[in-house]
Amino acid sequence: MYAVANLRGGLEEGEHWHRDGMLANKQNVFDDCAAAAEHLIATGVTDPDHLAVMGGSNGGLLVGAMVTQRPDLFSAAVCSAPLLDMVRYERFGLGQLWNVEYGSADDPEQLGWLLGYSPYHNVREGARYPATLFTVFDNDTRVDPLHARKLCAALQHATGAPIEERPVLLRREAEVGHSSRSVSRSVALNADQLAFLAHHLGLSVR
C-alpha cells in the first residue's frame, strides 16, 4: 500500500490551505501527517511495525519532524535533501529566501515557532527512533547537506533502538544537485531508498 497525505501547507485547496501550514501554523503540517498515519493504523490498513514515511526537500523536513515527534508511528523513514536545523537554515544555501514561509530565528517570537518543531532541536535521548536513511547530494545549492548530516549524527547518538534493527544511515552522492540528475542515477537512488524501506518493513520479494 502506498498513501499520499494531503497536508495543509500546499496549494491544493487554495491560499487559505497554504497559510494554514506556514509560519506560526507550520505544526499543522506535521499534525496532519500524524493523523493520516493514525488513520491508516486505526482502519487496519497497516500497523506501526509496517508503516514508513518518505519525503524530500520540504518533504524531508516533514519526515524529520515525524521521526522526532512521532517515532512511535513508524518503523522506517527515508529523508532526502532535507531542511532539518530550522534555527540556522537561513545561513546556508538559499535559506535566506524562505523566511517568508518558515519565519526567522532573528525574531524572538518566530524563533519560538522554529524551536518547537525543528527536528535537529527535538531529538530525545533514548527514544526508539525508526530505521532512517538520509540521502544527500554534494552539489546541492538549495538545501545544504549539513542538515541531514547533523540530524543523522544526533539520532545515531540518541536512539534507544538496537542499531542492528533500526540503523540511522547517510547515503552521500557526489556530482549531483538538489533535483536534476541522470535517469541512471535516479533509478539507483530510488532503488536504494525503496530497498531500505522494504527491508525494514519486512516486505518479501516475489
Topology (elements, then pairings):
Layout: H1 15-19, H2 27-42, E1 52-56, H3 58-69, E2 76-80, H4 99-102, H5 108-117, E3 131-137, H6 146-158, E4 168-173, H7 183-201
Parallel strand pairs: 1-2, 2-3, 3-4
Describe what you observe in this structure.
The protein is α/β, with parallel strands linked by helices. It has one domain: Alpha/Beta hydrolase fold, catalytic domain (Rossmann fold, 3-Layer(aba) Sandwich), CATH 3.40.50. The protein is built from seven helices and four strands; from the N terminus they run ααβαβααβαβα. The protein has helices at 15-19, 27-42, 58-69, 99-102, 108-117, 146-158, 183-201; strands at residues 52-56, 76-80, 131-137, 168-173. A four-stranded parallel sheet has the order 1-2-3-4, with helices on both faces. Strand 3, helix 6 (146-158) and strand 4 form a beta-alpha-beta unit. The longest helix is centred in the C-terminal third of the chain and has 19 residues, at 183-201. The protein is globular and about 50 Å long. It starts with 14 loop residues before the first helix and ends in a 5-residue tail after the last helix. The model has no long low-confidence stretch (mean pLDDT 94).
Quick recap:
The protein is of the alpha/beta class and 206 residues long. The chain has helices at 15-19, 27-42, 58-69, 99-102, 108-117, 146-158, 183-201, and strands at 52-56, 76-80, 131-137, 168-173.
Morphology = globular
- Report the biggest beta sheet as strand number plus sense, adding barrel if it closes: 4 strands, parallel
- For the record, the count of structural domains works out to 1
Roughly what is the average pLDDT, rounded to an integer?
94
The tally of strands reads 4
**Beta content:** 5-15%
Class per helix and strand makeup: alpha/beta
Give the quaternary arrangement of the chains: single chain
Order of helices and strands: HHEHEHHEHEH
Instruction: Kindly report how far apart the N and C termini lie.
Output: 16 Å
Q: What is the CATH first-level class name?
A: Alpha Beta
Low-pLDDT runs of 5+ residues are none
